[in-house]
Each structure stands twice: as C-alpha cells, then as structure tokens.
Amino acid sequence: MPSALPDGEPVPDDGALPAHALAGAAERPLGFYLHVPYCATRCGYCDFNTYTATELRGTGGVLASRDNYADTLIDEVRLARKVLGDDPRPVRTVFVGGGTPTLLAADDLVRMLGAIRDEFGLADDAEITTEANPESVDPRYLETLRAGGFNRISFGMQSARQHVLKVLDRTHTPGRPEACVAEARAVGFEHVNLDLIYGTPGESDDDWRASLDAALGAGPDHVSAYALIVEEGTQLARRIRRGEVPMTDDDVHADRYLIADEVLSGAGFDWYEVSNWATSAAGRCLHNELYWRGADWWGAGPGAHSHVGGVRWWNVKHPGAYAGALAAGRSPGAGRELLSEEDRRVERILLELRLREGCPLSLLRVEGLAAAGRALSEGLLESVAYGEGRAVLTLRGRLLADAVVRDLVD
User: Fold this and answer.
1) What CA–CA distance (Å, rounded) separates 376 from 365?
2) How many Å apart are CA 204 and CA 252, to the nearest integer?
3) Sign of CA dihedral 370, 372, 374, 376
4) For residues 178 and 182, what is the distance between their CA atoms, to the nearest angstrom?
5) 204-206-212 Cα angle (round to 5)
6) 97 has which bridge partners?
7) Which NCBIfam families match (predicted)?
C-alpha cells in the first residue's frame, strides 16, 4: 500500500456512505483488508505506509503502540458494521497486509479476524490470508494462525541470493522462506504464496533462475513476481542517485519476466494476472481478484483504502492519528471520491486487461477499439479471444501491458 494519499472530499465523522453505494450490494462479494503498519526495519526499496519503532517514537504516544493495535483496528471493524448497516453479506475474503503483520502476536491477528466473523460472518469458503516475514514466524506461531481460521499465507522471499537481499535491505536469511513453506504445510495451510522481486541492481539471470528454482522447490501453489520499482524518497533511490548501485533497466525487467514465465509455466503454474501464477484456480488469490474486478472491500488501518459501490475512501496515514480518530468516536477517513460511470469503465479496462480472462471489447470506445485492432495486428492481443469479444494479452502483450492499457483507454 503506497504511502502517498490522493486528494478528495471530506469523509463524514460517522463514515456514512451515500445511499446509492449500497444499492445492489447483495450481488457483490465483500472483502476486508487489514493493514498492520509496523516493521522491524525499513527495506531500502519500500515506499509503503509503514513505520519502525524509531520512526514512531514520540509521534503517536500510547495510541500508536503495536501492543494495543489489534484493539484499535477492531474498533474500525465495528465502525464498518455501523456504516454498512443491515448489509447481509458474509465476508468472502480477509487479507492482512503490511508492513509486517506477523510482528503482532498471532493471537492478535486471530482476534482481528474474530471481530470480522462476529460482526459480519464469514462465507463458508472464505479465503483468509496474512502476509508474513519469514524471520518473524515459527511453527507454533503458524499453528496458532491456522487454528484461528487462517487458510492462506504469503511469505516475502524476494530472492534466494544473499547479495540481492542485501541491496534490498531484506533481513531474512536465504533458505528461511522455503523452510516456512514446509512449516505452514505441516500445520495445515491449504494455500501458500511466495513473493519474488526481479531486476534488483546486481542481480544476474542466473541469480533470478536460482530464486525461481528455490521457490518452486519449496512447494508453494502460488508465486507472485514483481519488477523492482525504484520509488523516489526511498533509501534505494538515494543509493542509485549517489552512484552506489546501478539504475534498474526495463530491458532487463522484460528478460527476467520471460524467464519467470518460462520456468513457472514449465513447473505447472499458470498465469492469471500479469504478476501472479498459480497451480490451480483454487490457488489464486481471491482477495486480489476482488480489487481487480471492482468488487467491494473495506480497508481497515492507517492509510488503508476502501471501495463500496463506486465510493472510494482512504484513512489517515499515521498510526497515532488513526487511533486518535477512532478513540474519539470518529471515522479515520482522510478523504473520499465518488466514481462516475466513466471512471469505473476506465478502471475496469485498467485492471481487467491484466487478468488471464482479459476485458470485454464492449468496454472500449471508438478510439480504444481502433487501438485494440492495432494491438491485435502487432501480436499483443490473443486472436481467438479477440474474435470472441475479449481483449486478452499475449505473452508479448504482458511485457507491454501498461502501454497497451493506455492505448485502449485513450
């Protein structure tokens, strides 16, 4: 969750939504994202809304403490129940992200999930995920999560090579993420993801292949692979500017993506979103699919974003300000926007084109349809899907996904 927040109109103190936002809600799935903003250290490439103990010292007082964070977040879950009123939907997905959610006690994560279960109910087949730092969990911790209702876990692996991890300022040791997969499987986790990053300065093709091989050898059923993005204001950006490490290269990113798709496909993983591969439909991250398909979700926590029925809002960033608002009985919302039909059409194209099923050509205007025709002739869209009325990216199209999306929207 990037740290910068957009502008927007004020959120009412009680968080109330316009009546139209809940119209037809029963037909849309509902998910929860729970943001835990704490990290033991700050990774050099990270631009997310996260805080170390040093960064929080003296800025939030007792309200910003991670010791009572679960209680604060549960207050927002209860606020969500009031705002959504008699909404009958059980929650379909819960995703706990960060930051490092597993810096909290396992019992705290279970209590946060329990609040959602108590206030809304969970669907019988609900997907319940947490992210985890490999060094912050052990078998007992994982067993507590599994017994408390979590059935999916995502470990931040990033790389199997020590020198690559060092550039990223990652603190875990190579081999620990793979061991975590085995530990999670042993306590009954049904679905396990490993997150990888490619294109780190100093990483070679062989390094990247070694990371992929190590990830596959661990036995996850889902792998996410993201190109490193150097965000302004990060330690990595400053190091590149000083000439300490080279700038990342788009051509290298493309080559690494091709390697990832070749290796993962060869191991029985199918891509279902440009940066995500799974061994089966059941292995997909359903929570992320809520985002990509414009469903409803409530984001609880500092800086978290929410969307319900065409209304999008975001919370204040700082944990102290967030906790203070809830302690005072106010919504922690910092701003919101009401999406027009055109906004939602454009967002559908932006997001759905990245999916394996693509987006309907019926979403495109005249200029977009002409651009789709050009993309087809250039081998960026699949011809069979196009004939069936859908824009679906080819492998080459995935390499140029952002450019294709811009053309179709324009």
Assistant:
1) 16
2) 9
3) negative
4) 7
5) 110
6) 35
7) hemN_rel
User: 349, exposed or middle or buried, with CB in 10 Å at 0-12, 13-18, 19+?
Assistant: buried
Residues 243 and 82: their CA atoms lie apart, in Å, by: 53
pTM: 0.94
Residues 155, 136: contact at Cβ < 8 Å?
A: no
For residue 156, report the phi and psi dihedrals to the nearest 5 degrees: -80, 100
Q: What is the C-alpha to C-alpha distance for residues 359 and 300, in angstroms, rounded to an integer? A: 29
**DSSP string over 241-308:** HTTSSPPP-HHHHHHHHHHHHHHHHHTT-EEEETTEEESSGGGS-HHHHHHHTT-EEEEESTT-EEEE
Give the pLDDT of the chain (410 residues) as one tens digit per residue.
Answer: 445 667 789 999 999 999 999 999 999 999 999 999 998 776 766 667 778 766 675 555 556 688 999 999 999 999 999 999 988 999 999 999 999 999 999 999 999 999 999 999 999 999 999 999 999 999 999 999 999 999 999 999 999 999 999 988 887 788 999 999 999 999 999 999 999 999 999 999 999 999 999 999 999 999 999 998 766 776 766 777 787 777 778 899 999 999 999 999 999 999 999 999 999 999 999 999 999 999 999 999 999 999 999 999 999 999 999 999 999 999 999 999 999 999 999 999 999 999 999 999 999 999 999 999 999 999 999 999 999 999 999 999 999 999 999 999 97
DSSP letters spanning 353-380 = TTBTT-EEGGG--HHHHHHHHHHHHTTS
Q: Which of 317, 324, 382 is nearest to 353 (CA)?
A: 382
Task: Tell me how far apart the alpha carbons of residues 408 and 247 are, in angstroms, rounded to a whole number.
Answer: 30
3-state secondary structure of 9: strand
Copy the structure tokens of residue 180.
Answer: 């975590």
Cα distance between residue 238 and residue 222, in whole Å? 33
How far is residue 386's CA from residue 371's CA, in Å, rounded to a whole number?
13
